[in-house]
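For reference, the entry.
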Amino acid sequence: MTGRSVTGADWTHANLSEARQDLKAEISRTDTKVALLLAFTGTVLAGVLAAAATIDVVLPALVVAGVACGVLAGAAMVLLTAVRPHLGGDDRASFPYWARLTTEQITAAMRDDRRADVVRVLSGIAVRKYCVLQRAVDLIRLAVLLLVLAAVLVAVVEGL
C-alpha cells in the first residue's frame, strides 16, 4: 500500500466504472442467450412441423403438437422483444438521447459525470431483457411438455 488512504469518492469512481462494465457484460450475455433460444425454438418448431407432415399422427396428438407449436411461436415473439432496440426516452445517458443533441450540447453534457445515470439506464435494460428471457424460457418449457404429451399420445394409440 502506498500510504494513501482510499476516500469515498475513490470508491464511488471505481464502483461506478465497474458497475457500468458489469452491466454491459450482462446485457451481452442476455443477447447471447436470446440468440441461442431463438435458434433452438426455430429448430424445434421446424422439426415438429416436418414430423407432423411426414408421419401419420392421431388427431389428439396433432392438436397437442399444434398447441405446442403455437407456444413455441409465442416464445419466439417474446424473445424478439428482447433484441428489439428501445430508442426513445429522455434518460440523458444513452446514445438515443445523445443522437438528438448538437455537438456543443454533447460536449457540455460530457462535462458532468454521468456514470450513475448510465448505470441506471443499463440496469433497466438488463432487467427488461432478463424478464423477457424468463418469460420465453417458461413458454419453451411448456411447449416441450406439450410435445412430450403429444409423443405419449402417439405411442399409446400406436400401442393399441
Summary: Residues 8-54 form the longest helix (47 residues). The mean pLDDT is 90.
